[in-house]
Automatic annotation (TrEMBL):
Claim: Membrane is one of the keywords in the record: yes
Keyword Glycoprotein (UniProt): yes
Protein name (record): Protein unc-93 homolog A
Source organism of the structure: Panthera tigris altaica (Siberian tiger)
Cellular location(s): Membrane
Assigned protein family: Belongs to the unc-93 family.
Transmembrane stretches, start-end: 7-25, 37-57, 69-90, 96-117, 137-160, 166-183, 244-267, 279-297, 303-321, 342-362
Keywords carried by this UniProt record: Glycoprotein, Membrane, Transmembrane, Transmembrane helix
Cellular-component GO terms for this entry: membrane
Gene3D superfamilies the record matches: MFS general substrate transporter like domains (1.20.1250.20)
């Protein structure tokens, strides 16, 4: 238990250090280099690179280098981006943005795969249900990781324009490289599977879309991309900055990160008692109420607390999407984890890209209606998957019950 918890903490603190530096940089990107369109171009190339890499890179890199070294290599791409920001120009920012985009999908896919394998291995040792331990590990990870939003925004709010020192990214790489244990997938080892050939691995992200459940579940990460983009871009700009001024943006985002962080660990424990469907319902109802309230609300500087209530509730909901979506993908597609998490990043990135694409020319109200529509469809599709899974579990159970009944009949006939 101690060694697996140590590994979960190493991954979590590695990501915390990495994203304390990067998160602050990203949120200031469009405002720092706005004049010549450099910031927007950098973000566009970043998301373009992310989309491209989600399609092919994660399964390949994880198969070739394993989860640990995929995380280390991908983290180096983030460090390069931080260095590019030191001398911000077209020649430094655009190439490093592409590099960061290429590194993002393997980084998150390897993290998801690592925590899933770690959770299942630990559950097997302790005689627990794999799903519960995986959920707990994702809860612990997001507790620590989401707090990076607190530290990153705190630093950039107290000294506006100051992003956290880029050295924390280098520390993240060293921490993971030195202290994280490499991990083997026990299930593959048992089946004696050496893994599929190169071309098969390359296309595994798309092949997994042949699974009906995955086709239904692509809307969940896509919605996650939409709602994060709305909060980071539109809520901060159209509500907070308009009514309170830019200096409050950091503090409002701290409130989001803090509730997100605390709820993550809470959901990791709660899911064992309530099941995941109850948590998804909580997340959907909370976001639904927020969206409707934002459509009706006219922000005013005198209602200071309300701005924080919205970002706090958004965090309560977002914690459901982050912890439960990751655990759901890891549990449902256990045999194809790498391809499943690559798909997760692909569709989430697509959500970001679409939201980022229309952010400049659509009204806030229209964006809220889009969120409402995507959320409703995503929950409908998710409900269908839960129904299919319940049917699958019920079938063998019914067959088991039928067997003794048949035995009894033959006895009475005799």
């Amino acid at each position: 238990t101690e060694s697996s918890l140590k590994n979960v903490l190493v991954v979590s603190f590695g990501f915390l250090l990495l994203f304390t530096a990067y998160g602050g940089l990203q949120s200031l990107q469009s405002s720092l280099y706005g004049e010549e369109g450099l910031g927007v171009t950098a973000l566009s190339t970043l998301y373009g690179g992310m989309l491209l890499s989600s399609m092919f890179l994660p399964p390949l890199l994880i198969k070739r280098f394993g989860c640990k070294w995929t995380i280390v290599i991908s983290m180096c791409c983030y460090v390069a981006f931080s260095l590019g920001n030191f001398y911000a120009s077209w020649f430094t920012l655009v190439p490093t943005s592409i590099l960061l985009g290429l590194g993002a999908a393997p980084l998150w896919s390897a993290q998801g795969t690592y925590l899933t394998i770690m959770g299942n291995t630990q559950a097997e040792k302790a005689g627990k249900v794999g799903r519960d331990v995986v959920n707990q590990y994702f809860g612990t990870f997001f507790l620590i990781f989401q707090s990076s939003g607190v530290w990153g925004n705190l630093i950039s709010s107290l000294v506006f324009g100051q992003t956290p020192r880029q050295g924390s990214g280098v520390l993240a790489v060293l921490l993971v490289a030195v202290f994280l244990e490499p991990i083997k997938d026990a299930q593959r080892k048992r089946e004696g599977d050496e893994g599929p050939p190169f071309w098969s691995t390359l296309l595994s992200t798309f092949r997994l879309l042949g699974d009906k459940r995955l086709r239904l579940l692509v809307l969940l990460p896509m919605y996650s991309g939409f709602e994060q983009a709305f909060l980071a871009g539109d809520y901060t700009r159209s509500y907070v900055t308009c009514a309170l001024g830019i200096r409050f943006v950091g503090y409002v985002m701290i409130c989001f990160s803090a509730t997100n962080s605390l709820c993550s660990v809470l959901y990791g424990r709660l899911s064992q008692k309530t099941g995941r469907a109850a948590l998804y319902t909580l997340g959907a109802v909370t976001h639904l109420c927020c969206i409707i309230a934002l459509l009706l609300w006219e922000p005013h500087p005198r209602q200071l607390a309300v701005f924080f209530v919205f970002s706090g509730l958004w965090g309560v909901s977002d914690a459901v999407w982050q912890t439960q979506n990751n655990a759901l993908y890891g549990v449902l597609f256990e045999k194809n984890k790498e391809a499943a998490f690559a798909n997760y990043r692909l569709w989430e990135s697509l959500g970001f890209v679409i939201a980022f694409g229309y952010s400049t020319f659509l009204c806030v109200n229209v964006k809220l209606y889009i969120l409402l529509g995507v959320l409703s469809l995503a929950m409908l599709a998710y409900g269908t998957v839960e129904y299919l899974e319940a049917k699958k579990v019920a079938r063998p159970a019914a067959a088991e019950q039928a067997k003794p009944a048949e035995g009894e009949e033959t006895e009475t006939a005799m």
